[in-house]
């Protein structure tokens, strides 16, 4: 099971490391916007919108990667003092009760929204904004983010099951990855 979890987790690690480059792109584009505006009195709406959409892409597509590293915000007043098996049980319950249902809802709930965007050939409502297919492509990140989080939820469940059964290592895969 750990091998399966490692293979599944690799997808989120690859996506997360790739999407991290968007942050550099956001800085460079923002710098370009400022230079163009204040030195040359130039500006384009599509360039400004691209920063917003890159920002959204980073947060949506890197959510699964963040979960692989166990770096999501958590109130762990009691959690940190529990045994590895108790933490694994809480992680499994959280995945089954919250993470999986929410992401299934997000996946199926966003499907028509994204399909409508593609069907209409949606563009930015701003004059001079992003053109087709940028908006539908970017909206497609919503179900992709849900799929990536669902994939990581399976990893959490597999690793939790290993720890609960006593077959898991004392350090989870996410803890090993941090080392």
Question: Could you walk me through the main structural features you see in this protein, from its secondary elements to its overall organization?
Answer:
The protein has 179 residues and is an all-alpha fold. The chain has one domain (2-69, 78-173). Helices cover 75% and strands 0% of the residues. The chain is built from 7 helices and no strands. The protein has helices at 2-40, 45-61, 63-68, 84-120, 134-139, 141-164, 173-178. α1 (2-40) runs antiparallel to α2 (45-61). It is elongated, with a radius of gyration of 20 Å. The two termini are 21 Å apart. The relative contact order is 0.18. Residues 170-179 have low confidence and may be disordered.
Question: What's the short version?
Answer:
With 179 residues, the chain is mainly α. The chain contains 7 helices and no strands. It has one domain.
Helix content range: over 70%
Radius of gyration over all CA atoms, rounded: 20 Å
DSSP strand tally: 0
Overall geometry comes to elongated
Mean pLDDT: 88
The tally of structural domains comes to: 1
Number of helices: 7
Write the H/E string, N to C: HHHHHHH
Q: Unreliable stretches, pLDDT < 50, 5 or more residues?
A: 170-179
The main pleated sheet reads as: none
User: What structural category arises from helix and sheet content?
Assistant: mainly alpha
How much of the sequence is in beta strands?
under 5%
Distance between the termini: 21 Å
């Amino acid at each position: 099971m750990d091998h399966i979890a490692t293979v599944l987790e690799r997808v989120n690690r690859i996506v997360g490391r790739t999407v991290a480059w968007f942050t550099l792109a956001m800085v460079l584009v923002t710098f370009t916007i400022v230079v163009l505006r204040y030195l040359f009195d130039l500006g384009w709406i599509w360039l400004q919108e691209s920063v917003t959409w890159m920002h959204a892409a980073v947060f949506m597509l890197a959510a699964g990667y963040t979960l692989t590293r166990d770096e999501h915000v958590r109130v762990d007043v009691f959690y940190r003092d529990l045994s590895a098996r108790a933490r694994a049980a809480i992680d499994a319950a959280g995945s089954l009760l919250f993470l999986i249902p929410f992401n299934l809802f997000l996946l199926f709930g966003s499907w028509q929204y994204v399909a409508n965007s593609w069907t209409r050939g949606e563009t930015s409502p701003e004059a001079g904004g992003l053109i087709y297919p940028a908006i539908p492509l970017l909206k497609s990140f919503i179900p992709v983010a849900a799929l990536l989080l669902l994939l990581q939820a399976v990893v959490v469940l597999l690793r939790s099951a290993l720890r609960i059964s006593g077959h898991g290592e004392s350090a989870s895969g996410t803890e090993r990855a941090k080392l």
